[in-house]
Specification:
By secondary structure, this protein is α/β, with parallel strands linked by helices. About 25% of the residues lie in helices and about 20% in strands. The protein has helices at about 25, 75-80, 95-110, 125-130, 155-165, and strands spanning about 65-70, 85-90, 115-120, 140-145, 145-150. The protein has a five-stranded mixed β-sheet with strand order 1-3-2-4-5. Helix 3 links the parallel strand 2 and strand 3 (about 115-120).
């Protein structure tokens, strides 16, 4: 053990150097060969501390305050609606859609003066094509059966509420 210049007496510093030039010298240096660690996730006991609430439920299920819009009910729920309608075009595999979903659900629960609906673009391709949905999530506001405002991507609640004004 060697102490470095200017170091305290109680803090030893170790200097390791090796000049290995011949094969014989290299043979005397121990070599470490690590074996791969194999662990199965089932060997870990993992329990979440908080309950996870996934807003997009199973295929086609949405919040009670939010209507599942299909090609079959689109005309009745959106086109002929006397209320302003906020329509969320989404897909279950879409991460940003899952982030936006609780916000849309909350608006559906809070705002009784509007109607909120969701269109699963995987199941309702014709509706997605009809409104030129190229990116999800996409929100479209309908008034008197006509699309009046459109936004794409995750939006804060205030921005979505601004679309409805």
């Amino acid at each position: 053990m060697r102490r470095g210049r200017g170091s305290s007496q109680n803090t030893p510093q170790v200097l390791l150097t090796a000049d290995v030039s011949s094969a014989a010298e290299r043979a005397t240096i121990p070599q470490f060969r690590a074996s791969p660690i194999r662990a199965s996730l089932s060997s870990f006991n993992v329990t979440p501390k908080t309950k996870i609430n996934h807003s997009h439920k199973r295929k086609g299920e949405t919040n009670v305050a939010v209507i599942n819009i299909t090609l079959e009910n689109f005309e009745a729920e959106v086109i002929k609606s006397e209320k302003t309608v906020l329509v969320d075009f989404w897909a279950p595999w879409c991460g940003p859609c899952r982030m936006l979903s609780p916000v849309v659900d909350e608006i559906g629960e809070e705002r009784t003066d509007i109607k909120v609906g969701k269109v699963n673009v995987d199941e309702q391709e014709e509706l997605a094509m009809r409104f030129g949905i190229m990116s999800i999530p996409t929100l479209i506001v309908f008034k008197n059966g006509e699309p009046v405002k459109k936004t794409m991507g995750v939006q804060p609640k205030a921005a979505i509420l601004g679309l409805l004004e």
